[in-house]
Specification:
Elements (H helix, E strand, L loop, with lengths): L1 H9 L5 H12 L5 H7 L7 H9 L8 E4 L5 E3 L8 E5 L5 E5 L2 E7 L28 E4 L6 H4 L9 H10 L9 H13 L6 E5 L6 H18 L5 E6 L4 H10 L3 E4 L8 H5 L1 H6 L2 H15 L4 E7 L12 H17 L3 E6 L17 H17 L33 H5 L4
Helix pairs in contact: 2-14, 4-6, 7-8, 8-9, 9-12, 13-14
This protein binds iron/sulfur cluster.
Length: 419
């Protein structure tokens, strides 16, 4: 509680729920019986929590919660050391506590009924579909990262390990059957999902053109079953411009090619597979190509915030990292590319990092400030659906606040100047 008070004092011009969200993402949530019970009826919203629910023997906690007051959406990462807990009040309402102080009522998204319906191969839809917001669905055209087997995974990545485990246990197929995926989406739509955005995310190949072809085939199969929704977002490695154009012709409207790390020296060390396959310069060039293809406000890139200043020889200090990221953010935003970052959390950690290696919340709040200021300076917020500060954008596209609950820069334009 003392640390949170210090943050609230130090960043007094930032809305309270942004600070709380940043600190909860960084320090996690202590699990208790109340939140475990809520997991059984709540939605599975992320790839890692989906795998955890298949692989783990007990029902995982909900993967997100929402502050009832302003709908700020926060990822739930378990950490037994956390001062944060969600408790039920005996009347079915949940509240978030830091120590003994109550910070307000929170809610969970109810598990949609279609999740338990089966496709023609006999598997329930929740094997295939992830749903976060009320009107979007995420599926994976590839449940496989080729870098894992060669020991060239991104150094922070738990996902490639989880996918490999899921494939070995025959819980998922490395290349999902597109017709079955399309069938699952059709079932969800028939069950009442008013689909406005489709997201395709997952996997990576050394042959990036082949990766693009899997995505195209997947989209084609889906649009044989349903009409293309308003927005279609592709999360992949940085694709070549011709592949980007073909995807646009099929119906894609947004792309996210995650750079993950900005520092030029650390890039090949921390992202060996991506460095070998594409390289940092070419990755950035393809992001710039994507702005030409899809337009401003339709191209994004994620960073694993704080990873570059892990306490390891040859890594940056926190101040050096802040300076480097800020330069990177300006370079990208000026060119119409929207950067954001996930908080590097203590659990689960891979790559021999220690639980105390991620920087403190304060670092992340300092890291978010230049993104907000630069998006304002270069007039990008209107491209992201904000006519002015303090309003909710449509829950679609790059600034959907339901989907990106593991990041908090999207909450600045929603919560600053909110009445
Ligand atoms: S490309 Fe990197 S981040 Fe993506 S799944 Fe593979 S190892 Fe993980």
């Amino acid at each position: 509680m003392q640390y949170l008070e210090k943050l609230l004092d130090q960043f007094s011009d930032i809305p309270r729920n942004i600070i709380l969200k940043a600190d909860i993402l960084r320090r996690g949530i202590k699990l208790n019986d109340d939140i475990r019970k809520a997991g059984a009826t709540s939605n599975t919203t992320g790839i890692s929590s989906k795998l955890e629910s298949f692989i783990g023997s007990s029902s995982p906690p909900p993967s997100q919660f929402h502050f009832k007051a302003d709908e700020t959406t926060v990822d739930i990462k378990a950490d037994e050391r956390s001062p944060y807990e969600i408790r039920e009040d005996g009347e079915g309402r949940y509240h978030i506590f830091c120590g003994e102080e109550n910070f307000g009522e929170v809610q969970f998204i109810k598990r949609p009924s279609y999740m338990d319906k089966k496709t023609s191969d006999g598997k329930p839809c929740d094997y295939l579909i992830i749903q976060r917001g009320p009107s979007c669905i995420c599926v994976s055209p590839l449940d496989f990262c080729a870098y894992f087997k060669k020991g060239e995974s991104c150094k922070y990545c738990i996902c490639s390990l989880g996918l490999d485990l899921g494939v070995q246990m025959k819980l998922i197929k490395p290349i999902p059957d597109n017709n079955i995926l399309a069938e699952a989406i059709a079932i969800a739509c028939e069950d009442g999902v008013d689909l406005k955005e489709l997201k395709l995310s997952g996997g990576a190949l050394y042959n990036v053109h082949k990766e693009a072809n899997y995505i195209k085939r997947c989209l084609d199969a889906i649009f044989d079953r349903i009409d293309p929704p308003e927005e279609v977002t592709i999360f992949s490695q940085a694709l070549e411009k011709d592949d980007q154009k073909e995807l646009k012709d099929i119906g894609a409207t947004n792309v996210c090619f995650d750079l993950e790390v900005w520092d030029e020296q650390l890039w090949p060390e921390l992202l060996p597979g991506k460095a070998k396959t594409i390289g940092r310069q070419e990755w950035i060039k393809r992001l710039e190509d994507a702005v030409e293809v899809f337009g401003r406000g339709h191209v994004g890139t994620n960073f694993v915030g704080g990873f570059e200043c892990a306490p390891r020889p040859g890594f940056l200090s926190q101040d050096e990292a802040l300076k480097s990221y800020t330069e990177g953010f300006e370079y990208l935003i000026k060119r119409g590319i929207v950067p954001w970052f996930t908080i590097w959390t203590a659990y689960p950690l891979v790559g021999n990092f220690q639980v105390d290696d991620p920087p403190p919340t304060e670092f992340y709040l300092r890291l978010a400030q230049p993104i907000h200021e630069l998006l304002e300076k270069y007039g990008v917020y209107p491209d992201l659906g904000f006519p002015r500060m303090g309003v909710d954008p449509p829950t679609l596209g790059l600034y959907c606040y339901y989907c990106y609950s593991m990041q908090f820069t999207r909450d600045y334009p929603r919560l600053i100047e909110r009445e």
